[in-house]
Amino acid sequence: MIISESALRAFTQNIFLAMGCSNEHAALAADVLILSDLRGIDSHGVARLIGYVRLWENKRINTRPNITIVHETPTTATVDGDAGLGLIVAPFAMRLAIQKAELYGSGWVSVRNSNHFGIAGYHTLMAVEKDMIGFAMTNASPLVAPTFSNERLLGTNPMCYAFPAGKYPPVVVDMATSAAANGKLEIAQRLGKQVPEGWIQDKDGKFTTDPHALKKGGSLLPLGGDREHGSHKGFGLSATVDILSAVLSGANYGPWAPPFVSFLDPPADPVGKGIGHFVGAMRVDGFRPVDEFKAHLDNWIRRFKSASTVDPAQKVIIPGEPELEAQTDRKKNGILLIDAVVNDLNGLAAKFGISHL
Amino acid sequence: MIISESALRAFTQNIFLAMGCSNEHAALAADVLILSDLRGIDSHGVARLIGYVRLWENKRINTRPNITIVHETPTTATVDGDAGLGLIVAPFAMRLAIQKAELYGSGWVSVRNSNHFGIAGYHTLMAVEKDMIGFAMTNASPLVAPTFSNERLLGTNPMCYAFPAGKYPPVVVDMATSAAANGKLEIAQRLGKQVPEGWIQDKDGKFTTDPHALKKGGSLLPLGGDREHGSHKGFGLSATVDILSAVLSGANYGPWAPPFVSFLDPPADPVGKGIGHFVGAMRVDGFRPVDEFKAHLDNWIRRFKSASTVDPAQKVIIPGEPELEAQTDRKKNGILLIDAVVNDLNGLAAKFGISHL
């Protein structure tokens, strides 16, 4: 099914309203999810809506949160999301970081007591719009084993860095710190395909190509796959995300991070509140004039785009470029939803008594 | 040859003095190199001394630099290193970041017109000593091809994050954003061994296990190795380091970064000055009380150290832990130098007319 941005946005907003969100929050939460679908990151868009609803039904998401700043200095702060939607809490934190950057050059906010925040790119792009460099990361449900271990102790813990360019789209590096994100496994499961070696291991710590291995006690692997190929680096990056997002804020870290899926209960011995995020903004003109920076970043992009490639038909891809291409295309031509997602969404419509898609 | 820390430090300091460094700068530069040897990162310690001397002989390093702050806000700054040793310039930048963090919670400094800064961990540990979180990264000689390309456009561009713990050593994530650092290739070359697939490609972009492939037009690969295993993530991280260190500061970026080896001339069409670094510091107590943070980071470390492992004899390694073990051991028992390094150092002693090792 192909649906227009505006129709999908209105539908999504209605679901959040039905969950009890304010008008403002429903519009913001829908905006985060729709940007994900527009940018071609289908795993993080409306496909997740049913997951948020289930967590809300399990009383793990508060749709009327009182989000507070619990501690701050001129350029740092800790925010308590009051168990709100990460889709609401993270933009609150990023607005605070941007305000601090406007006054002092940079702003950094660690967040506790939150939930899944959608695509990290949404939050960093808020900074880019102000000619700032944006940072965003979050911890997540434990699915990834550290190097040498067969225990799932870390989330796919994404990190995102975004930079405003001039003539070219912003450079947006938005990546899971695992070898592959869970969404890629789900695609392989649906297609009945094997996955490459180096993405997952079975419960005994052996590489497997079975996309269902996670359900059998296996785990995702850090970026790098195994030690020889640098998995200790993927583990180190994931640890960095976990510490900045959760140890620093007072959220749950490592294996204590509450799972996104509602059928798994959060650990009974929490070490903090909810999951954590870390966001930041730095004014480009805190370092050099914006036009100079953008001219040089354009030159950087131009040089990499024109690099010699192994296959002349396959150019170097600038991070963020395919997502902006998808966004332009889908804004014009609509968003393709697979049947499983349409069915989920229409199930939600029936549940809440709103018009189906 | 096994040499005591103090003897190697005095020797190294004498070389820097002979190059014309002030007493203070010679002591600092030696301190950075010696910490690298103590921590077991032999590739970045005194083994590099001959490289610095050669660059100085080629008039590419200024041993009497006038390091200046060219632009700043309360929490950001750009520093011009005046072609000084990165071993001097980066600590200057980190001290500035720490001062800003003391006043405003965080401090961020982008550096241009510098040279190789040694181990990133040295600089981040300066912040850790003040109960701050330390960040350090640098761009470097182009040796790494972005995903799909067979051109060397990026350095091994390390990123480092360091966190103060309580009972345990600091967590120090210090990693090249390539699949393997150049030092690992050099070890394989010396031993006449092949390297694993996924570290390097030949000039046509095919994986090769030949550790000499770089000399034949090949390139290092980003962390991940190939696209299927996430090399676009390694490329994105490396791009982030390049942009924060060089596009933001006004240094040379991408293929314009001047090579560390003196026998290769810098590009004739520079886009900036020297190479660039990016360092930062954030006060832990800008987010939560230091003792709370340290207690939770200790708990994090404890949980990961006690994780179930595939091979019960091989525990999970906490980033920074092996380096501190090496440091404790080598402080007591001395530093092992291989013959090639001893010969290089004694060659320098003869050149400068100082006592040999």
Describe the structure in your own words.
In chain A, the strands form 3 sheets. In chain A, strands 2-3-4-11-5-6-7 form a 7-stranded mixed β-sheet, with helices on both faces. Chain A has a 3-stranded antiparallel β-sheet with strand order 9-8-10, with no helix packed on it. In chain A, strands 1-12 form a two-stranded antiparallel sheet. Chain A is globular and about 50 Å long. Chain A has 357 residues and is an alpha+beta fold. Chain A has helices at residues 5-18, 23-38, 49-57, 86-104, 120-128, 182-191, 231-247, 290-305, 321-333, 339-352, and strands spanning 2-3, 68-72, 76-80, 106-114, 132-138, 159-163, 171-175, 200-201, 207-208, 219-220, 275-283, 335-336. The first copy, chain A, has 10 helices and 12 strands. Chain A has 2 domains: 1-57 and 324-357, Malate/L-lactate/L-sulpholactate dehydrogenase, four-helix barrel (Hypothetical Oxidoreductase Yiak, Chain: A, domain 1, Orthogonal Bundle); 66-179 and 221-319, 2-Layer Sandwich (Ribosomal Protein S8, Chain: A, domain 1). Helices cover 38% and strands 15% of the residues of chain A. In chain A, α1 (5-18) crosses α2 (23-38) and α4 (86-104) runs parallel beside α5 (120-128). In chain A, β3, α4 (86-104) and β4 form a beta-alpha-beta unit. The interface between A and B is large, with 85 and 85 residues.
